[in-house]
Amino acid sequence: MSIKLRLLLWYVNTFRKTDLSVPPAQMREENVKALARFQKIIDYAPIELGEIRDEHIPVRDDAKIRIRIYRPSDQPNLPLIVYYHGGGFVLRSIESHDLVCRRIARDNQSVVVSVDYRLAPEFKFPVPHQDCYDAASWIAKHAGKFGANAEELTVMGDSAGGNLATVVSILARDLGGPKIKRQVLIYPSADARLNHPSIDTYAKGYFLTRPLMQWFVDHYKSSEADILNPLMSPLLTEDLSNLPPAFICTAALDPLKDEGEAYAQRLKEAGNQGSFKEYPNVIHGFFNMPKVSRETLEAHRDVQAF
Fold first, then answer.
1. Bridge partner residues of 111 (DSSP)
2. Angstrom distance (rounded) from CA 66 to CA 208
3. What does the pLDDT look like over 106-148, one tens digit per residue?
């Protein structure tokens, strides 16, 4: 583990005390403040792009959600990446993942569309999953107005966002669209049962903790039965055949690493193409921490190569 990463963990464990008794809305406010303090430590200055703008798009039940479009240039017909942020379905937003989406757009010379899906507990399961599928369908249909090519559509997400990208790929297969060419799953949450060995091994002291993960599940589920629903726990999906090629990556010091690897193995056994990689000496969230870990930019290069 790098010295920078050790210092970050020391800072988090010493000064960022997470009080899980507070309401989620208050937790979001505190999370935004904490991220503002961390941002200069973990990432560089914002990458300038050709265009960044927000829109509101329709989803089911006559609702609207926000998306943010990142265009590296005014060149037409660029590849399209739909990005879903992490945060346990309860925290974070397109603001928290602005810097990482800028980097993805530049490095891949692709239009990135970040989805601000509605959060629990105000909008419990399966609303965020429905938002993300509806958003992918709308974005693919209107890709031309963003200068993007819907035939080159990748869904991507980290943590809970990796779960959402996974489920969108499955729903697109089962519901007849949109046509997804590839999926990138960054330390995805794939099993809400929280029963994999790595969850106990890295239960505390490594940024993402077991109590926080349970807090996420408790706020997201509408009932205990939801935990076994394949949309919430895609590792439990019976049929994983005929899915887009996947690049799945995990962090060696992450409670989620076992379920990410297990999902990659299930995809392989079902006959899908793709690859799996575990990055050493890094924690959950490292994909957003280029100043802290050299593995971060390595992971971005691996995504670009995929």
1. 80
2. 27
3. 999 999 999 999 999 999 999 999 999 999 999 999 999 999 9
* C-alpha torsion angle, residues 63, 68, 71, 74 (rounded to 10): 50
Place of tokens 């999906």: 237
Angle CA(153)–CA(157)–CA(163) in degrees, nearest 5?
A: 110
Catalytic annotation, residues: 159, 254, 284
Residues 208 and 255 sit within 8 Å (Cβ to Cβ): yes
* Predicted pLDDT at 15: 66
Half-sphere exposure of residue 241: CA atoms within 13 angstroms, side-chain side:
3
Other beta carbons less than 10 A from residue 246's beta carbon: 24
296 secondary structure, DSSP code:
H
At a CB cut-off of 8 Å and minimum separation 6, what does 219 contact? 24, 88, 89, 90, 120, 121, 124
- Measure the CA–CA gap between 220 and 232, rounded to whole angstroms: 9
End-to-end CA distance of the chain: 26
Helix, strand or coil, per DSSP, at residue 153? strand
User: Using one digit for the tens of pLDDT, what is the confidence trace for 193-217?
Assistant: 999 999 999 999 999 999 999 999 9
Amino acid residing at 119: L
Q: Is the dihedral of CA 265, 150, 112, 26 positive or negative?
A: negative
Q: Within 10 Å of residue 124's Cβ, how many Cβ atoms?
A: 17
Say what the pTM is: 0.97
What are residue 212's DSSP bridge partners? none
Residue from 300, 289, 222, 209 nearest 255 by CA: 209
40 pLDDT band, cuts 50/70/90, is: confident
